[in-house]
């Protein structure tokens, strides 16, 4: 008995268009016949260039699947894949028979099959990197089913960067690796040139207090237990609790960039045409100087826009001490809380996420992007060193700061210097000044300055918050004929590597200058005499090896980071060039550059007939001379038990 005929209609829009087809078999020959047709639609039809977007037309051929898989292994993003395939097939933009969503679903189906194998490969890759470089750090945790639950890693250069710039840290956990169903967190900071620097990253299976606590504890293990002064994150209650447990001495803040990014989903419907004005008002309140001003202005804002009963506003107010700057200005955040830096950090993280491919390859791709192998770093640093700094005010304070600070930090100080003349300072008590803008009736600031003790402070707390002196203090200094900023108010954190050595090593430079020149003279004579014959060269190499062994057995003196940097003779203590208003470039130089002598290459540098051998300038190969003057040796955090199954 044949099946009952089903007459199904469209349940979405009630369209009456249909076509009924019947299959008949006569004499074992199948035949399809159209028994009913209606072309009456109650909606607009798709255009010809839109038909390919229908599910029935979205097909990916086996050849295209193979090509997409190859592109994914190469680390290409989905958009790059689509654009390249459009060019290869000669079709217009967006006219492929499949969409971006189709490609992502295809890639996810590939990864779901190999997810457990990828996790094993990831751990094996980390072990390989650890074997190649002891300073590479990683740790992981397996669950009860022997599956990867959490893994975190960092690179040798990241540990060194954290040693110098780990006072203020951003821990971003707003992204996921969807293909592996894992939360992706990354620790970043800001270096002395205003560039985002990478400290480490983590993949977490779950989003809870235990997972975040494991991540923070592991990160501190990588960094030898050094906790940051401040840490900013997104608005996550579990992460907030984990920071309080694992880093009780760290001031935790919620980045306002993440808060404002959610406003478009919450407030436009509620506020209507007033949304843009309210958003500008909210950002103004966020940037106020004083807590009492914030409390007063917040009440005005709530009354003006009628937000008393709105739960999200109540929640934001309850958390105000975590995101409003009036409550955070007493703590050092290195400028990471302003909107510009938050966007820069997010762009940096997006570059890392663009590396998504196979999970084991992800570690190497992240390393390439963050530049841990120093391929991109030196070029950027050289460009910053060659950057000219223009003097705008002509004050001695400006010239002094330009000789010490990096162009980025000096630019921030210069902004305050340019604004300082717009303020008037009045001595109200011994060591106490009232500073007020000439055109404003309210908003005065209290500046304390005790010259005998080199102590300065301002009620705006700009220096405590950013490490850069505010316009109010600068106005007081200039009014009272102070021509230099005390060293402690030009933090080493914002100085160039060479300039940070300037004030601590002047005496050391003079004491070592003659000794260095003597050693170089002796080394030069040794080279010229040893290269005369093969016998002399062999004798020189043998004796030098003995001397080096004996020297290394002697105890080392205790140096700080700057001392170690200076005694490496390849470092020239040259500060950024400074250009004044007349266009005259002043170069601030401390010490003399020296050419290092590489003893291990003696035998490779044999004289050729009729050719003079001259020494080439090279850079010190020691890691503590290349990176911030400190050789950071990481601890081995391998989980031996968990590695046993590999």
Give a written overview of the molecule:
With 646 residues, the chain is an alpha+beta fold. The chain has 26 helices and 18 strands. Strand 6 (182-190) and strand 7 (196-204) form a beta hairpin. Residues 372-377, 498-511 and 558-646 have low confidence and may be disordered.
The gross shape turns out to be: extended
Q: What is the percentage of strand-forming residues?
A: 15-25%
Instruction: Let me know the average pLDDT.
Output: 76
For the secondary structure, the number of strands is 18
- Protein structure class: alpha+beta
Short description:
The protein has 26 helices and 18 strands.
Which short descriptors sum up this protein?
single chain, 646 residues, 7-stranded mixed beta sheet, 4-stranded antiparallel beta sheet, 26 helices, disordered C terminus
Task: Write the topology of this structure.
Blueprint: E1 18-26, E2 29-38, H1 62-73, H2 78-89, H3 100-113, H4 115-132, E3 137-142, E4 148-154, H5 156-165, E5 168-177, E6 182-190, E7 196-204, H6 209-222, E8 230-233, H7 237-246, E9 251-254, H8 256-261, H9 268-271, H10 275-286, H11 291-305, H12 311-318, H13 320-323, H14 339-353, H15 359-370, H16 377-385, E10 389-390, H17 396-402, H18 407-419, E11 423-429, E12 432-437, E13 445-450, E14 455-458, H19 462-466, H20 471-479, H21 499-502, H22 506-530, H23 534-553, H24 561-567, E15 573-574, E16 578-579, E17 585-586, E18 589-590, H25 623-626, H26 640-643
Parallel strand pairs: 5-8, 8-9, 10-16
Antiparallel strand pairs: 1-2, 3-4, 4-7, 5-6, 6-7, 11-12, 12-13, 13-14, 15-18, 16-17
